[in-house]
Amino acid sequence: MPAWCWWLIALALVAGSQQYRVVLANGETAAARGETEAARTELADYRLDVSERDRRAAAQSRTEEQRRQAVADEEGESARQKLELAQGRAAAAESAAGGLRGEVARLRDGHRATCDAIATQQRKAGASAVLVLGGLLEEADRMAGIFAEALERSRVAGRACEAIADGLK
What is the secondary structure of 130-152 as a DSSP string? Predict the structure, then answer.
């Protein structure tokens, strides 16, 4: 056999083996493409699942936030109404105390007029007990009204805070 035949056989063998390698590579490429497409589909499904869970969690969070805000608003309104009621009661008590202070002042003035006539005759050292006690009573009554109003505000605010905290649980 001539040498060129050997070269032709060798060339055919090399070309055949290269063709075989190309066919195998194409098969592997097709399999890899299939795996890649399956992975892409799986990734898209996963992303869809995650976005749906995020949407549901956000909606649930909004619902809970709205519930808590409704509880806080309701308790705030209740506390505001109770404070208005307490302020009305404090105003009524202040009005009654004003009348009492007026009566004490009238009695003190009457006592002072009487005592002034006697005092010119007897000039005692020190003030009259009625005048001192009347002043003390007037001041104590005024302070009691202030303290009662502050206590009522504090009580209403504390109960509203407790109610809000209980509603948020």
Answer: HHHHHHHHHHHHHHHHHHHHHHH
d(CA 31, CA 87): 82
Cα distance between residue 45 and residue 92, in whole Å: 70
In the chain, the amino acid numbered 145 is G
> How close are the terminal C-alpha atoms of the chain, in Å?
99
* CA-angle at 39, arms to 38 and 41, nearest 5°: 65
On the question of pLDDT at 125 being above 50, the answer is no
> In which element (H, E) is residue 82 found?
helix 3-122
From the list 18, 21, 15, 164, the residue with the least C-alpha distance to 79 is 164
Whether pLDDT at 9 is above 80: yes
64: number of CA atoms within 13 Å, CB side? 8
Amino acid type, 70: A
The answer to whether 108 and 134 are in contact (CB under 8 A) is yes
pTM over 0.70: no
C-alpha–C-alpha distance, residues 21 and 23, integer Å: 5
> What pLDDT score was predicted for residue 131?
66
Residue 28 confidence (pLDDT) above 50? yes
> Is 71 in contact with 167 (CB distance < 8 Å)?
yes
Task: Please state, in angstroms and rounded to a whole number, the distance separating the CA atoms of residues 32 and 139.
Answer: 95
